[in-house]
Amino acid sequence: MNEAVIREARNLPAEPLALAELAATEAPRAPAFIVTIYGDVVEPRGGMLWMGTLIECCARHGLNESLVRTAVSRLVGAGQLEGVRIGRRSFYRLSEPARAEFREAARLLFAPPPVPEDWLLCLSDALRDADLPLPWARLAPSVALAPNREDIAPVAGVLLRAKQLDGHGDLGQLASERWGLPGVAEAYSSFLARHGALRDLLAGPVRVSPEDALALRLRLVHDYRHAALSDPRLPRAAYPHDWPAEAARKLFVTAYVGLSKLAETHVGTEFLSPDGHLAARNDETEWRLFQLRREAAA
């Protein structure tokens, strides 16, 4: 869609604007978007998905059948998807390693841990030749720093807990350089710009179709996941005052909850597994919504 059409769409009511933004956005990479579909829709329902449903869902986002089939083949080859043929139909599910990976991502999306307050400092000569796992950052050949979070894997060496003393040094500059925060901020800002029209859509009286609601929610999850997974989740003092993560999180929570009732209606009527349609809702999807509603209320 060219810029003139987009500018014209911005003068339309909220519903066409939100959908025009979706149509104007460049198609996502097929393999990553297919993983988003499985993580958001299929995996929490514990099922498999018919290839035909996957093709139809991806078509709404500018991905044609050839791209989808090629991406699925690559995901199977990479061990992320597993397939089974029943009659003339092919069905796919996430492999166990991919399920474990997305469970961790789902925790970040739907029940994020508290923001850390301080740091872990590791001192060891062995760090000189070590490949440090993220979000550990090397400060010197034998010194590494990471946010003090429960999910941080320790590295070998003397491990200390550290806290910055006010007025000593520029923590923000250090964090920006070591963790590439400008790129993370750009990902959050792009998410806000791309999905900001959902605020008006959900606040107004206009309703979208179940199919459109699911399309909007899938891209919401896809783009927010990209930004959130790139964020090292440092103590708040390490970020600039205008850090966009909080606004992005608020938009994600509000929009996901607001779109889900209609989106799940579409899942329950159109998404096919070997046992029939996937459930519109189950305990896992209700838990996700409960967590987000509780976060919004807080």
TrEMBL record:
Family matches, as Gene3D superfamilies: 1.20.58.1460, Winged helix-like DNA-binding domain superfamily/Winged helix DNA-binding domain
InterPro entries cross-referenced by the UniProt entry: PaaX-like_N (IPR012906), PaaX_C (IPR013225), PaaX_trns_reg (IPR011965), WH-like_DNA-bd_sf (IPR036388)
One annotated GO biological process: DNA-templated transcription
Highest rank taxon of the organism: Bacteria
Domain Transcriptional repressor PaaX-like N-terminal span(s) in chain numbering: 30-96
Domain Transcriptional repressor PaaX-like C-terminal: 179-267
Stated name of the protein: ArsR family transcriptional regulator
